[in-house]
Amino acid sequence: MEKEENIIIKVCKELDIQQADLARMLDVTPARISEWKNGSIPKMSELALNLMLENKELKQHLKNVKRFYETLQALNIDEKI
User: Which Pfam families match (predicted)?
Assistant: First the structure.
């Protein structure tokens, strides 16, 4: 079984941010982020990190839906001409 990627590394990679940026976003010290990267993460912090990933995913889905809607609108206009 493959080892799951560390949530700190995953969030930084997915959001294209540095650990210092993540520390500012979570209002903790960069040293705390480093500790979490190498050890256990408090449950509430882990929840916040997972919500950050989910939020990014939902924003991408919304963007795709908007593009799809715009495409449908364009096709509808073209049919009326």
Answer: HTH_3
